[in-house]
Amino acid sequence: MLHGPLDALAKSCFGIEGKPCGKMPYRYEKTIIPQGEAFCTYDGGKSVSDYIDGAGCCVAEYAGDMLAEQAPEKGEKPFQGTVYAFGVRIGSAYASKNIPHVPYGSGNKEMYPFGLSGSTLILDILSKYVIPVSGIRERGIETGVFENGMVIVNHRSEPYVLPEKYQAYHYQYPPDRRDSAEILAGHSAVWVSKTSER
């Protein structure tokens, strides 16, 4: 489970409670300028990402015994799974359309907003538990996998060349056939299936 700062459900279910704090840059591969309206630090979990200048833990992982120790009601069954507590609203930071300035007190240090940082924080967390079934992991390309095939949606404006292992069957907008490559036009979708011939 992933949750953001000051989450009442995480507190009620798992006993994970963040301590409110000010807006501070945090570090994961690069220094990231936080965005959003709510921020907090966490104690008791394994630190995944810390605020700079030792201000506390920004992203914490709670699993196994650590998760059981945090639980508000100690029951016979220990919690199974892992909870990631984010001290920033990572979704709003990713989707934000504005680019924040480097905090004045930080001088001329290199800092980036989450969306421009190239950070693999979410990918690194999810890759531990979720296998990318389609094998297509590109920005602007969305997949929905089914037993007998897959829907590929191209949210980008430029065409996307389908990997050779897929055979296109039903295009939303059929492509202009100038070459043998299966091409998905921008802002369109296609139903594909794997093929053993290629």
**Radius of gyration from the CA trace?**
21 Å
Averaged pLDDT: 81
Total strands? 15
Morphology: globular
**How would you classify the helix and strand content by structural class?**
alpha+beta
Strand numbers in spatial order across the main sheet = 1-8-7-6-3-4-9
Order of helices and strands: EHEEEEEEHEHEHHEEEEEE
* Biggest beta-sheet profile: 7 strands, mixed
Low-confidence blocks of residues: none
**Residue share in helix:** 10-25%
Strand content: 25-35%
How many domains, in number, for the residues? 2
Structural overview:
The protein is 16% helix and 31% strand. The protein has two domains: 127 residues, no CATH class; 53 residues, no CATH class. It is an alpha+beta fold. The longest helix has 7 residues. The chain is globular. The chain is built from five helices and 15 strands. A hairpin with a 2-residue loop joins strand 10 and strand 11.
Helix-strand layout with pairing:
Layout: E1 2-3, H1 8-14, E2 19-20, E3 26-28, E4 30-33, E5 40-41, E6 46-51, E7 57-63, H2 64-70, E8 82-86, H3 90-95, E9 112-113, H4 114-117, H5 121-127, E10 141-146, E11 149-154, E12 160-161, E13 166-171, E14 183-184, E15 188-194
Parallel strand pairs: 1-8, 4-9
Antiparallel strand pairs: 2-5, 3-4, 3-6, 6-7, 7-8, 10-11, 11-15, 12-14, 13-15
